[in-house]
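Minimal example, chain plus zinc ion.
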Amino acid sequence: MYKFIFIIPIIINIALNTCARKEMKNLSSSDQSENMEKVYKTEEEWKQQLTPLQFHVTREKGTERPFTGRFNDFFEKGYYKCIGCGLVLFESDTKFHSGCGWPSFFDPAEMKNLKFHRDTSYGMIRSEVTCARCDAHLGHVFDDGPPPTGLRYCINSAALEFVQEE
Ligand SMILES: [Zn+2]
């Protein structure tokens, strides 16, 4: 009887880990967004549309300082669009408090709206996340998130625009 009680959490843990690994594999080979109509703008056009911080983050792969972003400690009900092209990227239902200093989500609104790239800068192997439509740099995805996906999409506030739900 007691043995069973110990075994069950172990089984759940194995199932969750397997699930997360499968998801990460899917991410790196994601090509569902190939048919999406792209948004292209010149550097000048982006500079006119975006604030200097938004431009730095999304067009120069910058990172806002931790705990400074508008949506880091923000949990209103609604959805988050790309600051560059307005594509819906995340929903408030999947936002969680990670304590890492940037808005964190465990799942995108639609997988096809994101693109994933291997990023080896700063001596780390990370998975960079960009907008599938305008190629804006959004942040990175890590495999230490909560269930059900086990993923943490660590996204710059400066790359997002929030739309409140009525
Ligand atoms: Zn975009």
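Residues 2-164 form a domain with the Metal Binding Protein, Guanine Nucleotide Exchange Factor; Chain A fold (CATH 2.170.150.20). The chain has three helices and nine strands.
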